[in-house]
Amino acid sequence: MAVPYSQLSKEELLKLKEEYEHVLKYYKDRGIKLDMSRGKPSVEQLNLSMGMMDVFHSESDLKCEDGTDCRNYGVLDGIPEAKRLLAEIAEVQPEEIMIFGNSSLNVMYDTMARAYMYGIFGNEPWCRQEHVKFLCPVPGYDRHFTITESFGFEMINIPMTPTGPDMDMVEEYVNNDPEVKGIWCVPKYSNPQGISYSDETVRRFAALTPAAPDFRIFWDNAYSVHHLYEDKQDIILEILTECKKAGHPDIVYKFTSTSKITFPGSGVAAIAASPKNIAEIRNFTRIQTIGHDKLNQLRHVRFFRDVYGIQAQMKRHADIIRPKFEMVENILERDLSGLEIGTWTKPLGGYFISFDSLDGCAKAIVQMAKDTGVTMTPAGATFPYGKDPHDSNIRIAPTYPTLTELQTAAEIFTLCVRLVSLNKLLEEKAE
Amino acid sequence: MAVPYSQLSKEELLKLKEEYEHVLKYYKDRGIKLDMSRGKPSVEQLNLSMGMMDVFHSESDLKCEDGTDCRNYGVLDGIPEAKRLLAEIAEVQPEEIMIFGNSSLNVMYDTMARAYMYGIFGNEPWCRQEHVKFLCPVPGYDRHFTITESFGFEMINIPMTPTGPDMDMVEEYVNNDPEVKGIWCVPKYSNPQGISYSDETVRRFAALTPAAPDFRIFWDNAYSVHHLYEDKQDIILEILTECKKAGHPDIVYKFTSTSKITFPGSGVAAIAASPKNIAEIRNFTRIQTIGHDKLNQLRHVRFFRDVYGIQAQMKRHADIIRPKFEMVENILERDLSGLEIGTWTKPLGGYFISFDSLDGCAKAIVQMAKDTGVTMTPAGATFPYGKDPHDSNIRIAPTYPTLTELQTAAEIFTLCVRLVSLNKLLEEKAE
Lengths: 431, 431
Fold this sequence. Notes:
2 copies of one chain form a homodimer.
Chain A: H1 10-29, E1 34-36, H2 43-47, H3 80-90, E2 97-99, H4 104-117, E3 133-138, H5 142-150, E4 154-161, E5 164-165, H6 167-176, E6 180-185, H7 199-206, E7 216-220, H8 239-245, E8 252-257, E9 269-272, H9 275-288, H10 294-304, H11 307-336, E10 342-344, E11 353-357, H12 362-371, E12 374-376, E13 393-396, H13 403-430
Parallel strand pairs in A: 1-12, 3-4, 3-6, 6-7, 7-8
Antiparallel strand pairs in A: 2-9, 4-5, 8-9, 10-11, 11-13
Helix pairs in contact in A: 1-13, 4-5, 7-8, 11-13, 12-13
């Protein structure tokens, strides 16, 4: 049974420190170069979709079901069969969805940009409003925060709980402050914690009565079908349906994509929303483009056929990445359990494990890992402005490295956690 | 030798009118449905690029020359070989170009949106400036105008001349009015007239000394390699080079795409600009997306290999569309020559023929053609706000229909021109 570091004497801590520094030097001397920083699928996962490169065999293959030649201009919304497929992934109706290009991040950015430039439902464009605030559940996805920051909006941290964002706080802000225009959500297998919102959380979102008439929930359902286990899966309530039931059909934009289903760089992204929202989005998107890549939409439909094809694909993905998650979890458990120097999440899906160190240690851990050849997501990145108030959260992305690489990377990581924690405790004892 | 309508007596005009109305009725009774409205490649042209669907044969095929797996995330600027290929099309250096998604219209929109939201080179964002004006050479491309109108900018008509926009007027506005932030240009085989800017015009653009520090030329080089003839081709000066020579390297954004080289809906678009402009664009684009579709970039490079492959492809396109342009020109010549009721352009490339009717006749001609089953671009569309001050310009897009369809469409068109002109002249005589 491991003894918590806090109960060790200065001498015991020093002894451990010396021992671990030897191991660290051993790793450093090996000239390691590993990357656990981004949620990228591995080569093995990419190979699962190679069949998609080979779905067109003749000119007639390039027509979608309504006879449109997918090579030519047109079809702003997406081809019917792609709308149906993405609607199934997003658990909405085809008339509630619009298909875009290869990047859901770009769709989210454009959605915020439209509100900024043109306004929502005839309200003053956000660029003309004195002060705009956005709620950011933390820890969260750095790229959401970067978009928001680029428009100069004030970002407000909302702590995550095991059932989703702190809804008391969300309600307090949204229902009373007309400057609060939106909130970022990754409702399922959240980035980075892998938390899925409880039914109560989703219902409380749907029941919001925003002070701002142009408030929107940015519901980034990036990991909706990205389960790790067949027998243990999170299920969340469908937000459009709940909003409709609650009488607020228009307060949410839902985003999805096939980026981590097929090819991250060449997938298909979509937005789902109420028909009234979709009509507005369509009117503005019409100015921006004649249409997105329909051949790529058709490629996806031909390859998967339907949502069952998607489900089969996600099981193949799970078979590849589950051992990686389990390996990292086992190493964290083996090396850190009982030491009381860190906690971590054990998600049932998604792309990340979230680690919380002792306060004030995250930056040092990530730096030490980097110096030893292991790149992690920069500490702080999971918070707006890159500022983690406790300097404790670290995002672990286990999917891209091979199992062998991952083992080394995880072992180096836990070693860095131990060493930095020892240093902190020693400093405290010195004070 | 045809006699000008203006020299005919009322009786002669009435006789012609009766005759032509019989022919019109004959066409109407046939229930024709033809489309000469948009610059869309024909199916035969699309088939020229079918080989592009078949360039990847194994996993290793999906790596670009620097070893990057094009299926995964990353590479914001575009893969090196795609930058090189598009740079050759755009006649710039690879470091002066960034590759985007499938739509150059989207790139232009985003470029204006960035200036609107963030400003250029640290200047006040256009959304914060009291009044923004944009110069619009007319007749021009309706989608340029729609973008500009969506941001609420004032659009100012600049008449086109046979050598490009009226440069006295352009200089007067740009060099003196700090509210003038930009100008739209289609410098080669312009939309809709097929005019190519003379060397003097390009040099005068490069020599502009804008009153606004954040003025930009939006140089939409949509038809740079889109010649109709091998032995008669327009050549225009390269604008980035000229701007550099003139000491104003940063005043231009140049746009290009493969939309009318491969597949309109699934091509690759790019922006070319000075390294300082590119650096700024890259910094903002980084917020918007992780990267564009690299597989599609690679597909293009594999299919064409280099600019010689592009040139060969454009000759094949020309072989298909040249007879269409010639047929329309021959019918215009045969039916309208000498009547003094219209003039038209005879471009050496691009996608359009521009027709100018007697003043006040364009809307009626397009409406009559529509009632007879032939869809044309709406009259007025070639002007900002859809307002052609003379109601005379009509854009003819001959590429999409088959030769047989085109013959009927062109004959109906000239018939409508004659009838509407007769009506106008008869009305004038009645006054």
